[in-house]
């Protein structure tokens, strides 16, 4: 079960806005990380993220329990998580 998310984006990413807008409307809490900043890039590298947009869904222990890169993938993962 997902407990929170990390969303990695950059300001110039053409697909990030769609994912960001979609995830703003889910009930799960999370963090929006700008991977174009030094701090955001460091978090991306530590998390194994190499492209944006990337959403990492974390479980209660903080382990990655799911990953998505597009709205369709988000919908599918969230449906499976809620069933």
Commentary on this structure:
With 83 residues, the chain is an alpha+beta fold. It has one domain (4-82): Glutaredoxin (3-Layer(aba) Sandwich), CATH 3.40.30. The chain is 36% helix and 25% strand. It is built from three helices and four strands, in the order βαβαββα. A four-stranded mixed β-sheet has the order 2-1-3-4, sandwiched between helices. Helix 1 (16-23) links the parallel strand 1 and strand 2. The longest helix has 12 residues, at 71-82. It is globular, with a radius of gyration of 12 Å. The mean pLDDT is 95.
Structure at a glance:
The chain has 83 residues and is α+β, with helices and mostly antiparallel strands.
From the N-terminal CA to the C-terminal CA, the straight-line distance is 10 Å
What is the correct CATH architecture?
3-Layer(aba) Sandwich
Q: Please state roughly what percent of the residues sit in beta strands, choosing from under 5%, 5-15%, 15-25%, 25-35%, 35-45% or over 45%.
A: 25-35%
The proportion of residues forming helix, as a percent range, comes to 25-40%
Number of DSSP E strands? 4
Instruction: Please mark out the parts with pLDDT under 50 across 5 or more consecutive residues, or reply none.
Output: none
Radius of gyration using CA atoms only: 12 Å
Structural class estimated from helices and strands: alpha+beta
Total count of helical runs of at least 4 residues: 3
In CATH terms, what is the fold-level topology? Glutaredoxin
Biggest sheet overview: 4 strands, mixed
List the secondary-structure elements in sequence, H or E: EHEHEEH
* CATH homologous superfamily designation: Glutaredoxin
Mean pLDDT: 95
Q: Which sequence of strands runs across the widest sheet? A: 2-1-3-4
Query: Shape, please?
Result: globular
The number of distinct structural domains comes to 1
CATH top level is Alpha Beta
Counting copies of identical and different chains, the oligomeric state is single chain
